[in-house]
Amino acid sequence: MFDRVALIGIGLVGSSLAHVMRREKLAGSICISTRSEETLKRAEDLNLGDAYEIDPAKAVIDADCVIICTPVGVCGDVAAKIAPNLKPGAIISDVGSVKQSVIEQMKPHLPDNVHLVPGHPIAGTEYSGPDAGFANLFENRWCILTPESETDASAVERLKSFWEKCGSEVEIMDARHHDLVLAITSHLPHLIAYNIVGTANDLEAETRSEVIKFSASGFRDFTRIAASDPTMWRDVFVHNKDAVLETLGRFSEDLSTLQRAIRRGDGDALFDLFTRTRDIRRSIIEQGQDVDAPNFGRDSAED
Amino acid sequence: MFDRVALIGIGLVGSSLAHVMRREKLAGSICISTRSEETLKRAEDLNLGDAYEIDPAKAVIDADCVIICTPVGVCGDVAAKIAPNLKPGAIISDVGSVKQSVIEQMKPHLPDNVHLVPGHPIAGTEYSGPDAGFANLFENRWCILTPESETDASAVERLKSFWEKCGSEVEIMDARHHDLVLAITSHLPHLIAYNIVGTANDLEAETRSEVIKFSASGFRDFTRIAASDPTMWRDVFVHNKDAVLETLGRFSEDLSTLQRAIRRGDGDALFDLFTRTRDIRRSIIEQGQDVDAPNFGRDSAED
Q1: What is the arithmetic mean of pLDDT over A235-263?
Q2: Residue B222 vs residues A225, A281, B22, B294, B300: alpha-carbon distances, Å
Q3: Across the beta sheet with B142-145, what order do the strands follow?
Q4: Domain shared by B111 and B163, yes or no
Q5: Mean pLDDT of A117-123
Q6: Are B156 and B170 in contact (CB under 8 A)?
Q7: Do the chains contact at B291 and A279, CB–CB below 8 Å?
Q8: C-alpha–C-alpha distance, residues A175 and A146, integer Å
Q9: pLDDT the model gives residue A303
Q10: From the list B220, B250, B282, which residue is nearest A289 (CB)?
């Protein structure tokens, strides 16, 4: 697909890309860059790439595709550093959970003769770092690309084809719309999970230990999401502020209604909501976006 | 353990008890009762018991242990019906997620010569009905018993031993304290999950379909919990109102603080919370209350 791909950042998504590019032979060579010497060394020990550079400006030399896999808060800095060395005609992309801010941060730095095609694979786990990656991460998952309308169509098509070879289905979407949809499907769920685990964490020590002990009654599900990478998620909330606050507003209104139903002992209203929410789960399973097994198949995983 | 056990209600927990009692030979005979003829027929087809009765008053005759496995809202009615036929010295228990209300509902109906020992196995899945049960449900899970201080100690000891033979570890606890701890570990997580899935469900059709499509970014985790049995959960919120509202109050205060941090772009406050929440996950995994695998081991379940 590409002669040379540069991966800037080698966490869960970056290392998973390295694995799948190797397996599917999508790049003649892979150059990996990350700002931590220790992480770069680890990537080398794991044999994730063909070349390793601390300096992203060196890593992008001759690359016909550059994928920035850092937290979204630093992609502007990365763009500024790599801009002078970008190969004319190169595709510049990323994997961040926020897209409008990524465009705003990166575009001013990039020369006119490269193609900015922001991307977001809807896939991940609560694990992070170069050891967390695996080649199947993107299998049967969506990848959203958010090019601007004036972006070169063949560059978009090429990146689309790349992600399809990584196992994904690709959707093209407006960056602002992406940020609103992801605020609901991803950012709000993470915020709520972090919040409830935080509430439990602030309890007095004895109750806190009971919460851990009896967590199989529901709470443990939230702790998985709330164990996600703190830097990545800090950046998401700072850079998708408006959509997150809008979505959180809706959630809070609905929660007030639910609270009132409980206070009034309105069982019918509760039953009605608890019935409607079952349909969405069914649709998600039908569309292959979750496993159809009790407790996410945990019990079989435990055996 | 017991000559004859009566199970009133044969959903997920009742049918799992039937399976494990058979496997571990914990009862000379099992009599099953449920108010739906169809469900009772299904239990018989699944060969879950030795006798089947629509009328709970008939089912409890000669039983030395009666376990009520219905939604908590009807346990008072069940107690009134079975009271005249209870065998002197019998243990009367249940499996409900709320304990104070169960005592208040049942105790006035029960004769003095039986032993009320309320119970709550901290185990479940989002599936319900007699087909959902399996013998391993209680394996390595806690079961909480909430007898009153004057309850016969040998009856408590006998039920404790029964649950241990079902695979559980047993904790004895005050009913009121149980209801507070479970409000945090179970009732609030379910309420939040139902609420966020409800918020998504109310979106306009196009966005709603995108939420389903891109649910692997976090949202799908919540839909599992929000697919739980509506009747059971309606009853939980109606019957544990005070503890749920108290816990919800704390959660909402914390959420307001988090909302303000996002509005102000206070990345340090966000990073601090997101780091603290990782410890609880680690403790839960160390204590064997969840699997130590990315995405709950879903990926292995999918293979």
Answers
A1: 96
A2: 10, 9, 34, 16, 20
A3: B119-121, B142-145, B169-172
A4: yes
A5: 97
A6: no
A7: no
A8: 5
A9: 43
A10: B220
Tell me whether residues B263 and A270 touch, CB distance under 8 A.
no
The answer on pLDDT for B302 being more than 80 is no
Residue A240 has pLDDT above 70, yes or no: yes
pLDDT for A255:
96
Concatenate the DSSP letters of all residues of B15-38 into one string.
HHHHHHHHHHT-EEEEEEE-S-HH
The tokens for A84 are: 């002078």
pLDDT over 90, % of chain A: 92
Q: Which of A185, A206, A303 would you mutate first to test chain B, the one with the most B CBs within 10 A?
A: A185
Mean pLDDT throughout B248-275? 96
Residue A302 lies in a domain: no
Q: Which residue of A has its CA nearest to B231?
A: A271
User: Of A69, A72, A142, A138, which Cα lies nearest the Cα of A103?
Assistant: A72
Q: Which of A132, A155, A173 is where one domain is finished?
A: A173
B269 has pLDDT over 70: yes
The minimal CB distance from B251 to the residues A132, A199, A271 is found for A199
In this structure, the answer to whether residues B136 and B183 fall within a common structural domain is no
Provide, as residue numbers in chain A, all residues whose Cβ is less than 8 Å from the Cβ of B172: none
Domain that holds residue A100: 2-173
Mutation pick from B126, B202, B255, B272 vs chain A, by most beta carbons of A within 10 Å, is B255
**DSSP-derived pairing of the beta strands B65-68 and B91-94:** parallel
pLDDT band, very low/low/confident/very high, at B207 (cuts 50, 70, 90): confident
Residue linked to tokens 């031993």? B161
Query: Are B197 and A132 a contacting pair at CB < 8 A?
Result: no
- If asked whether residues B227 and B261 sit together in one domain, one would say yes
C-alpha closest to that of A77 among A54, A98, A108? A108
Distance from CA of B248 to the nearest CA of A (A): 8
**Rounded alpha-carbon distances, angstroms, from residue B256 to A48, A245, B291:** 43, 11, 32
Read off the pLDDT band of A302 (50, 70, 90): low
pLDDT above 50 for B303: no
* Distances in whole angstroms, Cα of residue B45 to Cα of each of A244, B5, B130: 50, 19, 10
C-alpha A100/C-alpha A177 separation (Å) is 9
Tell me, yes or no, whether B185 and B66 share the same domain: no
CATH classification of the domain holding B28: 3.40.50.720
